[in-house]
Amino acid sequence: MARPDERVWRRSGDAVAETKSPVDRAHLARQTMGDSALEREVLGMFLHQIETMAARMRAADPAVRRELAHALCGSARGIGAFALAETAAAIEADPQNAVEIEHLGWRIDEVVEFIAAYR
């Protein structure tokens, strides 16, 4: 039986289903020096950030969306949410790309679900 962080993460419309966790647990552990309490704290702070940013990003003009995407990309990489970081980077490169903005919502949902299961 697969552990919760190994379950298949997919959304309809994705060309290829992803089989990796939305957060690289090994990367997160390295970033927090293996301290599980710190992992939970960092994930909680990240959860607050993405919940705040998601609505702002959708409503923002392209220049602000680019700045928000840049910030999200860096923090997502920091915790090991690499697919979310890649999507944020794509929005940073093209802040009017409606497809990537939609994908961002999916990626955020995946990470939120992961964090809820982790805590």
What does this structure look like?
This protein has helices at residues 25-31, 36-59, 62-79, 82-93, 98-118. The model is unreliable at 1-18 (pLDDT under 50). The radius of gyration is 14 Å and the shape is elongated. It has five helices and no strands. The protein is 69% helix and 0% strand. The protein is mainly alpha-helical and 119 residues long. α2 runs antiparallel to α5 and α3 (62-79) packs antiparallel against α4. The longest helix is centred in the middle third of the chain and has 24 residues, at 36-59. It has one domain: Four Helix Bundle (Hemerythrin (Met), subunit A) (Up-down Bundle), CATH 1.20.120.160.
Tally of DSSP β-strands:
0
Question: What Rg do the Cα atoms give?
Answer: 14 Å
Assign the CATH architecture.
Up-down Bundle
What's the story with the biggest beta sheet? none
Q: Tell me the CATH superfamily.
A: HPT domain
Give the structural class: mainly alpha
* CATH topology type: Four Helix Bundle (Hemerythrin (Met), subunit A)
Assign the CATH class.
Mainly Alpha
The overall pLDDT average reads 87
State the share of residues found in helices, binned by percent: 55-70%
- Distance between the ends: 20 Å
The coarse silhouette is elongated
Query: How are helices and strands ordered from N to C?
Result: HHHHH
- Low-pLDDT residue spans: 1-18
Q: What fraction strand? A: under 5%
The overall number of domains is 1
Count of helical stretches: 5
Structural topology:
Blueprint: H1 25-31, H2 36-59, H3 62-79, H4 82-93, H5 98-118
Helix pairs in contact: 2-3, 2-5, 3-4, 4-5
Protein name: Hpt protein
InterPro entries: HPT_dom_sf
GO biological process, one term: phosphorelay signal transduction system
